[in-house]
Specification:
This protein is mostly beta strands and about 180 residues long. It contains 3 helices and 13 strands; from the N terminus they run H-E-E-E-E-E-H-E-H-E-E-E-E-E-E-E. A hairpin with a 2-residue loop joins strand 4 and strand 5. The longest helix has 13 residues, at about 5-20.
Length: about 180
Amino acid sequence: MAEPTPTAAADRFRELMRAYPTGVVAITATTDRGSHALLVGSFFSVSLQPVKVGFCVGCRSTTWPDIRRAARFGIDILAADQEHLGAALAAPSPDRLAGVPWRPSGTGVPVLSGVLAHLECTPAAEHPAGDHSIVVADVLSIDSLRDQLPLVFCHRGFYTVAATSIRTGPGDRSCRPSAS
């Protein structure tokens, strides 16, 4: 059997990863060139001591270079009822924050309204990884803002997770479309 071509292998991998749910997180910053935001689907814990997080950003991003210039940036975890915000921040636009409600933190970092949590971070490292970069950040502060289920992205759409635990017995354990 012939090995798949690199393009075919990438297409198969893309389809596989579309079936894997990821959290929806916005990266925000304010620089001398304005306020900026981008949406990422790969956000993860790196270290507990010291507290570090990571996320992946595409190498072709036109927004990341502006955010990278900031001394501090925010990471906002979107809630299940913020599908509209996820769609607005995912749209190709030079000003993704236009019309998006937010307030500046004490240090001027945008905090999106209604998010589950806001982390304020400084960049620690950036590692090239194929067509993406892995960004590692030092967490300076954490604000839990709402007790709500998170927004997730799966199969090219926004969803929320069921509130039923696998350990509690039968129930809806699948992703379901988020409320619009």
